[in-house]
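seq/struct pair 1
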Amino acid sequence: MCHPARHEQADEGSVSLTEDAKVTPWEVSGNLGDTDYSKIADRFGARIIDTAMKERIANYTGDLHPFLRYDVFFAHRDLDMILDAYSRGDGFYLYTGRGPSGKMHLGHLLPFMFTKWLQEKFNVDLIIQITDDEKFLFRDLNSGDLAKYTNDNILDILSLGFSPEKTHIMVDTLNSGLLYNNAIKVARHINVSLAKSVFGFDDSDNVGKYFFTSIQAVPSFILSEILGRTIRCLIPYAIDQDPHFKVARDVMPKIGYEKPSSIISKFIPSLKGSGKMSSSDTTTGIYLDDDRKTVRKKLMKYAFSGGRDTAEEQRKYGANPDIDFSFNVFRLLENDPSVVSRIYEEYRTGQLLSGEMKAMTADRISNLLEELSVNREKVKDSIGDYMFSPDRFR
């Protein structure tokens, strides 16, 4: 049953989270629990993806991605309208993005894996916005660094095997004309007071920061603009990006477009179990260029464990898989729920030790990274086939 639409207010206000937790579009810190995510979703006006919604998705896809099965993607806005449009034959397209501020790690990559699954299951176009302009405005990065990170990040993303016919990479600085001509339509409806309220800006922030959310909104309606007809957009993103798209949803009807829909994820936790994986702290994440030895070492040394202090205690009392980093990553990389259930029980009852759980997950991660490394080399000479152009839709 569809829930009635909620009135969306632009002012986020405050959300009472766990004492050390903080979530903004530019900073995520502390340990976020399920209760915190529910609070954020409720305050932002998003709806939890319940069993009925999962069943409806599975009716179209045939199965559920582990990210849906285990509630990594846990909330949505108007996902029902996307499925309605698809069932009518009207179709939709996907839009997601990446800010190229450094090397990519596993936490960056896994949501793209989910997006690829959506693209394949629904056979739809995907726009991937590379927000190099955002990182120039918000980070102390020069144009040379940004160009390198942009190219490297694109290769990392494409190594997942996205369809060149249906995947469109939109680098902001390379598509500035198209973006600007449409962003000004959004910008005229976002005043300074709103930007300060939603994003926490003050008078010391550069004017580019105020304008950026208008740029980020453009891919959510650009196909309707290009094709001259309404085509709905579904945006997978992490919860910290929600303020950008709440503002976009408020503006879209004012400029003649449908509100974009969204499917919203929790963060992939850091190795240490709190916050999210960081590009600046090599001890919190698994990087895509980490070799097998490094991956194993990181998990053995840093990965937060739900196991006991000694092997004897674990065999006697078992582990807590629910808080264990290695188990939680393993289940996201395993498509067979019966395998996940078996490993869960073996770990919970002490048949499987923490070191064995870490080693199993390290091997699973390394197998993935080695496959992606091979794919990355294959796609190096064909990046141009994926680049965004309006002519590709006409």
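seq/struct pair 2
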Amino acid sequence: MVLIVAKSASTKSSAKGTLEVTNLSEQHQQNIELMEHHLHDEAFIKARDKVEKKKLKQEHKDREKEIKQAAKEGELDAKRKPHLFVLDFVGSIDAKEVTNLREEITAILACAREGDEVLVRLESGGGMVHGYGLAASQLDRIKSANIPLTIAVDKVAASGGYMMACVADKIVSAPFAIVGSIGVIAQLPNFNKLLKKNDIEFEQLTAGEYKRTLTMFGENTDKAREKFKQELEETHVLFKDFIAQRRLILSLIKLQQASIGMAHKPRPWLIDEVKTSDDIVVDACKDKTVLAVHYVQKKKLTDRLGKSAADAADGLLMKWVQRGQRPII
């Protein structure tokens, strides 16, 4: 018996992660009730609650009749209240968050029905091409299932982040959010002169003319630089084609102009509407059940401590970088 329990506990703890679902509609209603409790006196609240209780009782009774009738006719799905599934994607350089995104999307696609929609609250300044290419492909799964997809940008969706946003049926952005930056960049230091100065030899063996173009420790040639630049241009062309296919309003000329922009400026080819994600969620609560879906990976204590230290260092570095690159208001 002890072995069985131990085995069960071990199996349970080895799970990669869990899916967490939060009913944002209920949270919104609870917040309203809490505020009203402080706005009105006890007599008013008591009378109002009595009326609300009677109203809800009648609505529940009518709903039961409606469901029973739909069950007889075999049309239960048609009577199901529509849902808005809310996902959050805060992207890093390598877009490692796509690991959680794919699980969340898979769960939604397994239960979504006609009338349901998906909202992704996106925040990313871009990163590695293959990482954000995969993230965009995950969002394409939602489109392939004919589920309306909205991307909300409250802060930034630049470069790879904007590539993800372009998959959506609709891009909504806060007034001062940064969007666009349709370009490709690659940079790396070269320590070859430093190695030579310290009499350190570096050897690199390759098979194939362009197995390696630029290197951090070897001596880079003009031919290698030209090849690397060619690869960047090819990636840029693919990037622009991807966006042009999904944002039909964008012409190649406008693509060249979409280096970077803010939503409050009149650039209809970058976004569709100026609005915050909070406005979208609150509006949806009126006629939909709004559910926030998050896939949470289980982490060991050592991993959590290491991540906390890394996040603190990243945050400090980003503050210094942003102070030098962005105006402070």
